[in-house]
Amino acid sequence: MKGKLDYVVFNQKITLFMSNSPRFSVSERPAQLQQALNEVGSWMLSKVSTTGWNELVLEAKPVGDSFFVRFTESYDERDVTGTSRLLDDEEFATEQLSRLQHASYDEAEGAWLSVTVVVAAKNWPTPEYQVGAAYNRTHEPQNWDGEGGFSARDVREHLEKFPRTDALPAWADAKINRGRSLNVADINDEESPNPYLRDALVQFSEERSERALVNVMRQLMGGDILLDATNSDFVADGDNPFGPETTVKYTFATLEGYRGLCLFSSPEAVLKSHQEQGREGEPVMVRENSVKVMMDFLNNQEIDLLVIDPGSPTMSVLERPQVQWVLGTPHNPAAKMALMGQNMQQLLSALAAPSTFLLLGTPAGSIDRQPLIIDGEAEEGRTLLTFTSAAEVSSLDPTLEVTSATSMDVLRFAVDSGVDSVRINGLNPYATLPIAQVKELVELVDAASLGIK
């Protein structure tokens, strides 16, 4: 998208009025609640292939029309907790969790803000199952893996859908009426919060192609991004000049009549934009998780575009369908973050966690439907290529067909297929694991699931 770029400033917090209301009558709720709980429990059982566990625990919290979920398998000796992920809008679990939220609604206390569903098992190897749930209607949902907490807008949307007669919890009232503290970054910090994104933007400026833009999106799947909050209405709180009563106002731009939220890859880019708008003094930067920013964008219909480094040679524009594509397909953000940080222990943990995914690329038209395996030099042997997101696959080869499976199932396939190594992502940052290391990880996870020390 090309066109004249005009800067405008809007208040970040926009109240949306929802037409939804709790969809079950008081008399219908008990039966609907039990049915939804049973369906969620059955879905949880379908997601685990191991035996010998005592409990399966699903934690869920709403975001827009979907839910963040985190899965834990509990054994005698240890708990195995996966990373959080956003359910697809059309997934079976999304509908059943929504049904569970509506069915558990109470006019006084409202609907749950987070839920913990537990499937308990006993009498292995022919277990008996029991399912139950705990509903949190008052406490602020936890931030698990940097996916971000409830915003003022999230609270407003929830209350429009599920009004309550009881007083609001103090934290929710504070978010609605007083905004939030800012994660202010240092303008004098010369480093980019995401050097890989910065490099991808430079490449995009040299080759403005769809493939180069996908490369930008894949690097947004990890790390942080900067926003310009200079025009916020700041209210100090003691020594903190950016206290919780601050009204946050980010910088937006209009491009061919479309409204775009301005994002920045470096302090230098923020400063140049600030100066081009004729502002004096130093800008106030806010540092946010880039995946959270993209998710907030999808949930805010008042914003049309994401504009990265506006007005600069590296400017790139992301439209809503592009962001929906990259977030709507299975992805493993924890593994991506580990690769960016060159943290092998974190990478292995992200692969071993239950309910996490890896993707495979299959050559188009392949008769045997086998995933891509690279034949390297003699000392390298054959390498199974895996990916942390669909954008990673498309950046390497847009003709590849994408399939996904749990991370451990992909690693088990690698061991069984006789390859010599497994590579996580085709382009930088990536890591190659010798098959002996992969086999050891699989054996450790399988032993833990069976309660073997």
TrEMBL record:
Q: Where is the SseB protein N-terminal domain?
A: 197-325
Q: Name one Pfam family in it.
A: SseB
Specify the domain of life of the species encoding this protein.
Answer: Bacteria
Q: What is the name attached to this protein's record?
A: SseB family protein
